[in-house]
Amino acid sequence: MKRKIAAAAALATVLTAAACSSSSTSSTPQSALSTDGKGKTVNIWLMQDAQQGWPAVVDAAKKEFTAETGAKVNIQWQTWTNYSTKLDTALLSGNAPDGLELGNTQTAKYIAANAFVDLTSVKSKFDNSSTWLDSLAASGQSPDGKKTFAIPYYAGARVLIYRKDLFAKAGVTTPPTTLDELTADLQKVKDANKNVPNFSALYLPGMNWYTAVSFGAGSFGTQGVIAKSDGKTYTGTLTDPAFIQGINTWNTLQKNFSVGGQTVNESNQDALMAKGNIAAIIGNAWEQGSVVSSTPGSGGNPALANDLASIAVPGTTAGQPTPAFLGGSDLAVPAHAANPGLGAEFLRIFTDTAQQTALAKFAIPNNKTLVPAFEAASPGNKAAGDAAVGKTWFIPNSPYWSQTSDETALQNAFSAIATGKEDPAKALGDAEKIITTDLNSAN
C-alpha cells in the first residue's frame, strides 16, 4: 500500500509540474472560451463508443465548431484499454490534445494534479449546466464542489432487470414500486420456482460492491457515501448506523433470494441469467442486451428477448429509487493544451442542447432536463432514466482512491457479509480503515 501511495503522490507532483511548465503559446486565458481558430486545428480524444454509437453527433459538432471558429477538428479515436497510461504519457510529454474524454472515475487524480483547465468561470456558458446529473457533475469538480474541471458527457446507471414472464407466472403482473413490494414479489417468484435447481429470484453476487453500497447510500449526499471530507480529512461512513441498516436490507435480500455467488463478482451474471434459472439481476442497463445477445460466445439467450423488462431499483418510498451509482464519461481540457480556449469551445458545442438531444437516442444525456428525451427514445430506457434523475452516489473524489486497494476492500467486506463469515459492522469496519488510510495518505 505504501508503494501505491508513493506512486500516486509522485504522479500528481509530476503532472502538476507539467501543467505549470506548459509550452502553450496561446494568448487565450485558460479559463476562457475562444472562437479565434482561423488556420488552426484542434485535436480531440474521444472513445470509440461515439464512433460506433453516435458518429452523427460528433460530425454535427465538428461542423458547427468549424463554422463558428474557422478551426478544423481532428478526432483521434481511443479505446479504454491502457487509456490511463496513454493519457499520463501525453500529459507528461507535453503532447496532450486540446480536449479529451475520460471515465468519471479517472478524473480525480488529474484534478488534484492541476492537469486540467479550470472551467468554473465559463460553466454557465455550457447548456443545461444547472441541471447536470448530480454524480456525473460531482466527478468533474474539486473535492469541495466549488470548482469545475471536467464537463459531464453521458451517463450509465444500474437497474433491476427481470424476467417478466417468470414474475407473471408467479402472479406478479405489476412492477414493484417499493422495496417492501419487491420483497413480497420475489417471495412469490421464489415459491413458484421452488423445484427449479439453483434458482435465484434475485441474483446478488457478494462481491458486487456497487449494488451493495447503493442499498446503504440513501442517508448520504452524492459525495458522502463510503467516506466524507471536510476539505482536509476523510471520515468513513461505512460504519454509520444508517449505512449498516441499508446493508442489512441488501444482505437479507441476497440470503433469501440469491443462490450461490457469495464469493464472486457480477462479471458473469448476464450469462447466468441467460441460462434460465435467475429471475432478476441488478446491473447496468445495457446488460439487458447482453442477456439476450445472439453473438457467438457471448453466452446470451435470444429466446428471452421478449421476456425481459427493467425498472429502477425500488427504494423504501414509492417514486424514490434506491440510489444508483452513476458511471459515465467526462470531458476536459488539458492545462497545457496548444489551444485550450478552442478545446473548451468544442466541448461546449459538443455538449450543447442540440447535440445532447441527439445523443439521448443512444445514452443518458448529461443533464436532467433532457433525460425525458432519452426515455422517449425507447421503452427500455425509462428504468435507467429514472435511476439517473433520482438520488445517485459517487466514489470519494480523491486521487488516492484505489481500485486495487479500496475496491478490493469493499469486495472482500461484502463477500464476508454474504457468506456469514463476518457481521456487517466488523467487515465494513475493516474496509473503512483501509479506505480512510488511503484517502488521507497525503495528510
Automatic annotation (TrEMBL):
Keyword 4Fe-4S: no
Keyword match Transport: yes
Keywords: Signal, Transport
Position of the signal peptide: 1-19
Family: Belongs to the bacterial solute-binding protein 1 family.
PANTHER family attached to this UniProt entry: MALTOSE-BINDING PERIPLASMIC PROTEIN, MALTOSE_MALTODEXTRIN-BINDING PERIPLASMIC PROTEIN
The protein's name in its UniProt record: Extracellular solute-binding protein
